[in-house]
Amino acid sequence: MRVTINDIAKVAGVSPSTVSRVIANNPKISAATREKVFKIMQEMNYHPNIIARSLANQSTRIIGVVIPGMADKAFQHPFYPEILRGISSIAYKNKYNILISSIGNPEEEKHSVKQFACGGITEGIILLASRTRNSSVSELLKLDFPFVLVGKPENDHEVNWVDNDNFAIGYQLTQHLIEQGHRKIAFIGVVPEHFVTMDRLNGYKQALQEHGIPCDEQLIVESRFITDNGYDLMKKLLERGKLPTGVIGCDDLLCFGAMKLITERGLKIPEDIAVAGFNNVPLADYSHPPLTSVEINAFSLGSKALELLLAALHSEYQSFNRAIIPAKLVIRESTLSRR
Amino acid sequence: MRVTINDIAKVAGVSPSTVSRVIANNPKISAATREKVFKIMQEMNYHPNIIARSLANQSTRIIGVVIPGMADKAFQHPFYPEILRGISSIAYKNKYNILISSIGNPEEEKHSVKQFACGGITEGIILLASRTRNSSVSELLKLDFPFVLVGKPENDHEVNWVDNDNFAIGYQLTQHLIEQGHRKIAFIGVVPEHFVTMDRLNGYKQALQEHGIPCDEQLIVESRFITDNGYDLMKKLLERGKLPTGVIGCDDLLCFGAMKLITERGLKIPEDIAVAGFNNVPLADYSHPPLTSVEINAFSLGSKALELLLAALHSEYQSFNRAIIPAKLVIRESTLSRR
DNA sequence: CTGAAAGCGCTTACAG
DNA sequence: CTGAAAGCGCTTACAG
């Protein structure tokens, strides 16, 4: 069916080895035969079979991306496409391809990870963390298969990982609100199983403490899922009889919901309540008022993750590396008191 | 290094063929040897090499997904993850894997498409349309490689494709506004190169016409990119001296921007201006006020696309199929006049 | 500079 | 029910 190396070898009157060497740009081939073979390859519309090459080379140039959150609606967060873009940009530069896990539930995730790691399809895996206890991490560790985690692992030392400094981010955003004169600052959307939210919360607590503001646990609203909506969380907060002057939401999307409730209650943002989020989603600019947030550079999280992975694959010596991607406070109207 | 079929054959004292048959669950193998071989496979932690199997089978069970819009920020639209989820759900059920194109610019896209199609890695391709003139379509057509387009092609007849009926959707949404008493309805965000937006616009025009409302071209605001923001488009509209009572944005995200400007100008939604969009992004529920939109079922677009592709791959006879995914008007406060 | 041969790890008619 | 052999389409030491 398809044109193979043998077909063009025959037509060119050379051996398959020679054709292979022409393709590989082996310098030992004479210019004459190189030309001749190339011409015939063109004419016969030859394209190397990547699978065969992978088998012979023992190298597939495919990396797997496992997205645990893909099952649920959270996957619609702009964060994920940005990470994928980042991964993809580095993949292209290094002639790698990206295989993504097709997963609905944790069962399928496990299966995907196993298949990627044991099936010899992928050379390495990028795992997008979503839960604190990620069984895929221990699985990959057990298999001794190269991978990079996007997000903080349970144990720093045996894993390659990339993340923001979420503690610092939480601290920074809280400090910004304190500087704007707030002392009653709520923190909504903490999911205890998610390191990200816990780290941000701890940053918040630290900032309060350093400014001599006692931490009121009643101002902290937990959430069971990262997808819970801010509207309900905000409502829960108000039902506790707490009326903060500032609200930090663990994600911008939560903030939009919270802002809706605040407005419905006839309160003004930022005059009555300032609101700030994390992740700087594109819409943060277009909410009403525009939302102060923290740009986490998801693109860089992705590209750096693949860089680490490729480094690990091509390095002779094993080491466990970590990369912290800088984040940046983006101040908008939702936290600007006009005093 | 890795355990191969030969290794376990030796240990089990059978031939590699037998091991292969055990793996393939060939019924001709005796229960006894089956058990024995399975046990040793377990003990030795054997996993078949997918690449080798692909080469022998001439079947990779990998399908490629090419995302032309991946280059730009538009990829952050919740639409894409949803499509991917849809594709992925069907992929998992059919034991297929998904390879995504790593592309930044049209050049890279072309390269990806060629590689996927000619390299023998993927058995078929799902192409997410983004431009009217998609060179990848003609490329794949020329290569006679199986693919399904998500979005409407230039020529219906030679392509498998999946889409919503965007004309009907545009019509439906416009009619809803007309029913709410609006006669001065603007339509913003038309990108002439995008079939989607043109079809929706034509539906709008048709609805106006059927209700005896003359179409005022001044009320239609074009956009150069799908990523243009609604804030600016809305501003452009108002600068023309046109003050509609209803605004339809070609995408919900545009509407959020438009709503921001409207509110800034001291106008009320929906009392002064009703706003409605398409695509029903998750945030439509949480905007202020909640945004009327059209649910396009992106998940189904994706899953149906893969279903069509698999059908095409496994069918003996070639045919060009088309699937229209139903959409549903979701009415929220942004268009509910309280008269 | 080029070719014959072995090998990558599997599958599958063909015999028996 | 099982094995020996050929083959999938490449690559790459080894000779020459």
UniProtKB/TrEMBL annotation, chains A, B:
Gene3D superfamilies: 3.40.50.2300, lambda repressor-like DNA-binding domains. One of its GO terms (molecular function) is DNA-binding transcription factor activity. InterPro entries: HTH_LacI, LacI/GalR-like_sensor, Lambda_DNA-bd_dom_sf, Peripla_BP_I. Keywords: DNA-binding, Transcription, Transcription regulation. Residues 3-57 form the HTH lacI-type domain. The keyword DNA-binding applies. The keyword Transcription applies. It holds the Pfam family Peripla_BP_3. Signal peptide: none annotated. It comes from the Bacteria. This is LacI family transcriptional regulator.
